[in-house]
Amino acid sequence: MSLEPLRNEIDKVDKELVKLLERRFELVKEIGDYKKLHNLPVLDLAREQQVLQKKKEQLSNKDLWPHFEKLFQHIMNISKELEK
Ligand SMILES: C=C(O[C@@H]1C=C(C(=O)O)C=C[C@H]1O)C(=O)O
Question: What is the CA(22)–ligand 1 centre distance, in A?
C-alpha cells in the first residue's frame, strides 16, 4: 500500500481548512473594525472561554481535546493579531 491515497485525502481536507480559515479571518477583521469604531478591547476572555467550550462539546473524539484546545487558542491568538 502506498501513502498516496491518504495524502490525497489530507490535501482535500487541507483545501477545505484553508477556505474555512480564510473566512474566519475575514470575519475577525470585521470584528476588529467594529471594535476600533466602538473603542472596544481586542481581547474578550469570556468569549474565548465560550468558543473553547463549544468546540469541546462539538468534538466527537474527546481524547483529541488537548490538541484542539491548543489549536483553537492559537487560531484565536492569530485572530487577535489580525484585529489590530
Ligand atoms: C473575534 C473576537 O475577538 C477575539 C478573538 C476571538 C476569536 O478568535 O474567536 C474571541 C474573542 C476575542 O478575544 C471576538 O471578540 O469575538
Answer: 15
Domain hosting 38: range is 4-83
Cell 467550550: give the residue: 53
Residue from 52, 79, 82, 83 whose mutation best tests the ligand 1 pocket (most atoms within 8 A of CB): 79
> Can you tell me which atom of ligand 1 is nearest the CA of 43?
13
Q: What is the CATH number of the domain that holds 43?
A: 1.20.59.10
Residues 6+ apart with CB under 8 A from 65: 56, 59
Q: Which protein residues touch ligand 1 with a CB less than 6 Å away?
A: 28, 31, 43-44, 47-48, 51, 76, 79-80, 83
In the chain, the number of structural domains is: 1
Global confidence as pTM: 0.95
Question: Are residues 60 and 73 in contact, defined by beta-carbon separation less than 8 angstroms?
Answer: no
For 32-80, write each residue's pLDDT tens digit: 999 999 999 999 999 999 999 999 999 999 999 999 999 999 999 999 9
